Amino acid sequence: MRLRAFGNYAYRIADPKAFHINVSGTRDSYTTADLDGQLRGLVLQNISNAIAASGLPFLDLAANQSMFAEALARQLQPEFAKLGLQLDGFTVQSVSLPEELQKILDQKIGMGMVGNDMGKFMQYQTAQAIPKLAETAGAGGGIAGDAMGLGAGVALGQVLAQNLQAGLQGGAAAATTPAAAPVGVKPEEVMATLEKLAELQSKGILTQQEFDAKKAELLKKLV
Fold it and tell me: Which of 50, 90, 95, 164 is geometrically suited to a Cys-Cys bond with 73, CB 3.0 to 4.6 A?
């Protein structure tokens, strides 16, 4: 698993002879900038060993950064000594996952929150997507925004259909109530809907067959 860590370390030359042999060599000058690249490499090589030595799962590293820093410092001290250096201090300020892995982890946590129930997870995902959909629509997302809206609409429709079905099943034993009178459809509402569907069809989001079927369904409501 890839992860990111940020922190600081302090060191000094403890064995000038070892430093000269293993680091500076025959160069007239050797700066800390020259040394930093080599030391960062040592830190990266020892991170996985330090995590294993700390005995902490990844999700607990952020809450136990000092413990992780101590484990990493213990791993690094002999490596620094080989270069003639003494590691005086080491701190870890943050540990995190790359963005794409963090999204996967968030999804797994979301599944755990709803007890691995796929239906509830779809509700969770839809609830997370609605604010972003509103922002996209408000910003005029174009074809990509329309496609996102269509996809979120389908997901939301599935969730509402499942809830409606559950409600009908739960109320099957209850007394029936008189059916409400059908609500009339205004011609201007039908025309506005047809214009929106035509726009989606022109952008390739709806096929001609899907558009014709929806158009026929809407026109029947005017009869």
Answer: 90
- The C-alpha atoms of residue 153 and residue 205 are separated, in whole angstroms, by 13
Q: Is 30 helix (H, G, I), strand (E, B) or coil?
A: coil
Name the residue with tokens 């890839």. Answer: 2
Token pair of 28, please?
């007239």
Selected from 3.40.50.300, 3.40.50.970, 3.10.310.30, 3.30.479.30, the CATH number assigned to the domain covering 4-96 reads 3.30.479.30
Beta strand pairing status for 4-13 and 85-96?
antiparallel
Residues 6 or more apart whose Cβ sits within 8 Å of residue 32: none
pTM above 0.70, yes or no: no
Q: How far is CA 1 from the centre of its chain?
A: 15
Q: List, for residues 38-57, the tens digit of each pLDDT value.
A: 898 888 888 878 877 777 77
147 to 129, 133, 136: CA distances (angstroms): 13, 10, 11
Structural tokens at position 181: 């009178």
Look at residues 72, 113, 75 and name the one whose alpha carbon lies nearest to residue 90. Answer: 72
Burial status of residue 6 (CB atoms within 10 A of its CB: 0-12, 13-18, 19 or more): exposed
Q: Per-domain residue ranges for the chain?
A: 4-96, 101-168+185-220
**Sequence-ordered list of residues with C-beta below 8 angstroms from that of 102, at least 6 positions apart, any chain:** 96
Give the bridge partners for 6, in sequence order.
94
Query: Facing residues of 9 across strands?
Result: 90
